Amino acid sequence: MRVSEIMTRPVVTTSPQALLKDAVVLLTEGGYAGLPVVDEEERVLGIVTEADALRAMTGEIGTVRVADVMTAPVEVVSPVNDVTDIARIMLRDGLRSVPVVAEGVLVGIVSRRDVLRPFVRPDDTVGTHVRKVLTDYDGHRDRWQVDVEGGVVTVSGDFSDSAERHVVSTLVRTVPGVLSVDLRAR
């Protein structure tokens, strides 16, 4: 699964010149883990998190600018990165969110919640999406039965050859919430 499939967009951002108290309002009221700090061209300069704000609470927060407390440089990822790679980065570095950048410009953000959400999708939702993917691939011939239990997808039916089995398995794995695939010939 790719980052582009789970990232949140549009992204709520702040500027380095913004007052920290305004960024804190965005963080707390929006329930965000962090706000990317961007320039006029939407290039990521850093990120301001709740932890950054807490560290700044020792002084007069009303005059502190985001640039004074933001974390920079910041780890960024591409929309084509694999979600498991992002999860590893988050765990390794203790990050709660990571900006997503394409061609140097902010296009989304991924939080821990975004990474986890596909793995707890209801089975009926996963099944519906798998059926649609297979129907689109198969030209509406309805050759396979799809069953989902606990994120494990079982596809039963007739497969032309091992190449088609591989294609079907790969297509099914593109659906968020699929943990594994079991193909069974009838």
Automatic annotation (TrEMBL):
Domain named CBS: residues: 7-64, 70-125
Keywords: CBS domain
Stretches that traverse the bilayer: none
UniProt KW Signal keyword: no
BON domain sequence ranges: 122-186
Keyword Transcription regulation attributed: no
Protein name as catalogued: Putative signal-transduction protein containing cAMP-binding and CBS domains
The species this protein was found in: Saccharomonospora marina XMU15
Taxonomic lineage of the native organism: Bacteria, Bacillati, Actinomycetota, Actinomycetes, Pseudonocardiales
